[in-house]
């Protein structure tokens, strides 16, 4: 095993000396491998997850390490995988015995047997993840780099240790991981490796949607998600994973009238919003905001291309897509649906002559998500014309001012009716009935339309008036003030 440059500074944490001591006592070899080494060399901060390979039993080494630590942390053993994990000093350390793997074509779960460090590095997904640092007393801190991963780090290249067709066919999730690392690290995927992903794209069908979504989320959370989605598109993976998105691609022309390519526009929007938020679900909303445009696209000879109702259709598609991908069907999905449904609303109220009631309704419907909605709408401006770009952004500044003015005056965000259903029942001596709903809705509409202020006394007077119009009489001993 050739000695290379010493990387002892990467092993400054005291835990590594403890692992080294435990290694010596067990009579085996051990190495820290993968992401910790890669990220240290790249200067990406201090990773909290550490992978240790033992040439021998990883479980035995983990138990020995625990015994040497002052607080004797609990060792979690995963016998089926031959791994063990413990938490110490804010670190999560996983121990595995060095192994070699072989695969059945119908599964990404390998058949495993004990192996050498070389065998273990051979099974790694990429050369930059096969870098290992020795924790052995006679070579402590030495880098073991059989595939020139250091050179690939310097050249910013994603490359497989072995034949890429074998690497990707054996475990097709590695195709997603290659694209994810290229996006996160701003690396290029080596030419032959990229071709191999395209050749093996159909193999992604054996991967669970949960694992695919893990990688999609990491791509979406990158500084520039479009890099990953462009690669997913180029290799054909995106069409297999999210055909609803690739359906947006293309520009049609009829009678000299064209529309923009809504797929590439969408990727621009996702990049734009990523400059202003790290919130995953707002980024999902940006990715899906135009998803209803492909099925709603029509050509009208008088007005050209239309996408009527694409927001409503898109919101319905969000549910189906989340269900398909096994994304959470909870408040997060409803949040994305809501933003997709409302994504065009602020554009309408940018008009100088817009009424306060339109602004009140926008704030009422958006609730606490009004800021996120405005962030999405501003990200949706992708025009390359400087004058139009400035005009659209100025319009949205006006919208924000109107929202602030109306909100300060009328307080309709997360609106709660000043008069409750219980008070309506008591006032008119009613049992639960549709009249109560009619009166509550009427009060809400009157406030949103600006007919009455969002105040208790005005709402109560309106309730009494509406009740009388429905033929209801206030209960005895109740005057107009409710006393």
UniProtKB/TrEMBL annotation:
It comes from the Bacteria. CDD domains: HDc, NT_ClassII-CCAase. Keywords: ATP-binding, Magnesium, Metal-binding, Nucleotide-binding, Nucleotidyltransferase, RNA repair, RNA-binding, Transferase, tRNA processing. Pfam families: HD, PolyA_pol, PolyA_pol_RNAbd. The lineage of its organism: Bacteria, Pseudomonadati, Bacteroidota, Flavobacteriia, Flavobacteriales. This is HD domain-containing protein. Belongs to the tRNA nucleotidyltransferase/poly(A) polymerase family. One of its GO terms (molecular function) is metal ion binding. Its cofactor is Mg(2+). Residues 265-380 form the HD domain. Residues 186-247 form the tRNA nucleotidyltransferase/poly(A) polymerase RNA and SrmB- binding domain. InterPro entries: HD/PDEase_dom, HD_domain, HDIG_dom, NT_sf, PolA_pol_head_dom, PolyA_RNA-bd, tRNA_CCA-adding_enzyme. Residues 31-158 form the Poly A polymerase head domain. One of its GO terms (biological process) is RNA repair.
């Amino acid at each position: 095993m050739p000695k290379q440059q010493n990387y002892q500074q990467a092993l400054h944490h005291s835990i590594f000396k403890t692992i080294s001591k435990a290694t010596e006592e067990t009579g085996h070899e051990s190495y820290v491998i993968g992401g910790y080494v890669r990220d240290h060399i790249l200067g990406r901060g201090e990773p909290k997850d550490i992978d240790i390979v033992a040439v021998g039993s990883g479980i035995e080494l983990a138990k020995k390490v625990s015994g040497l630590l002052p607080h004797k942390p609990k060792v979690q053993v995963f016998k089926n995988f031959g791994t063990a994990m413990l938490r110490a000093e804010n670190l999560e350390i996983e121990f595995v015995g060095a192994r070699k793997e072989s695969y059945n074509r119908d599964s990404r779960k390998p058949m495993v047997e004990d192996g050498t460090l070389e065998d273990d590095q051979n099974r790694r997904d990429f050369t930059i993840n096969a870098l290992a640092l020795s924790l052995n007393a006679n070579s402590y801190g030495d880098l073991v780099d059989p595939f020139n991963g250091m050179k690939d780090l310097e050249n910013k290249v994603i490359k497989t240790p072995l034949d890429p067709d074998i690497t990707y066919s054996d475990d097709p999730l590695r195709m997603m991981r290659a694209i994810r690392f290229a996006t996160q690290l701003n690396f290029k995927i080596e030419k032959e490796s990229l071709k191999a992903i395209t050749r093996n794209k159909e193999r992604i069908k054996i991967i669970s949607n949960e694992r695919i979504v893990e990688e999609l989320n990491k791509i979406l959370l990158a500084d520039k998600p479009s890099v990953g989605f462009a690669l997913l598109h180029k290799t054909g993976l995106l069409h297999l994973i999210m055909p609803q998105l690739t359906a947006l691609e293309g520009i049609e022309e009829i009678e000299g009238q064209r529309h923009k390519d809504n797929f590439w526009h969408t990727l621009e929007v996702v990049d734009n919003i990523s400059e202003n938020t790290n919130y995953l679900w707002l980024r999902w909303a940006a990715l899906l905001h135009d998803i209803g445009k492909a099925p709603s696209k029509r050509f009208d000879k008088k007005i050209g291309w239309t996408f009527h109702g694409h927001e409503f259709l898109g919101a319905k598609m969000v549910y189906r897509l989340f269900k398909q991908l096994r994304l959470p069907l909870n408040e997060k999905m409803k949040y994305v649906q809501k933003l997709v449904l409302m994504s065009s609303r602020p554009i309408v109220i940018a008009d100088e002559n817009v009424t306060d009631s339109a602004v009140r309704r926008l704030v009422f419907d958006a609730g606490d998500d009004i800021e996120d909605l405005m962030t999405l709408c501003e990200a949706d401006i992708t025009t390359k014309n400087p004058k139009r770009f400035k005009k659209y952004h100025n319009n949205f500044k006006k919208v924000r001012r109107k929202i602030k003015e109306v909100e300060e005056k009328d307080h309709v965000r997360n609106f709660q009716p000043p008069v409750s259903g219980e008070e309506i029942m008591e006032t008119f001596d009613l049992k639960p009935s549709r009249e109560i709903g009619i009166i509550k809705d009427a009060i809400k509409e009157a406030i949103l339309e600006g007919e009455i202020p969002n105040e208790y006394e005005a709402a109560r007077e309106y309730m009494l008036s509406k009740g009388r119009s429905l033929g209801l009489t206030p209960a005895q001993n109740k005057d107009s003030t409710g006393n």
